[in-house]
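Homework help board

Subject: predicted structure for assignment chain

Our instructor gave us this sequence and asked us to write out the predicted structure in token form, then describe one feature. I got the tokens but I'm not sure how to describe them. Can anyone check?
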Amino acid sequence: MLPLPIADGQCDLKALLAELGKRQIQQLLVEGGAAVIASFLKQNLADELRIYIAPKILGAAGAVSITDAMAQIANAVNLNNAAIKNFGSDICISGLCKHFDKSV
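My token output:
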């Protein structure tokens, strides 16, 4: 167990990463849901993103509203050095988060 402080009602992610660093942990795979992943992105704590896409359509009768997501496009995370790889019928899109890519 790793007791951590609470920030804004949630686990303090910066404190988490600092504690993991003290324990010599240099890489962390975050495989969370939308709220966890969004927290890392909003706080600029993600260095690299890997997004896996399967050939499946979710939602009622294949209809998913993207209106809210499109309204937030100005707040999108830009990826640098993006790459696309196929794994059978699945796709992986990867890239460095803009704040981490030192070549920009």
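Reply (TA_rk): Your tokens look well-formed. For the description, you could write something like this. The helical segments are 13-22, 34-42, 67-71. That's the kind of observation they're looking for.
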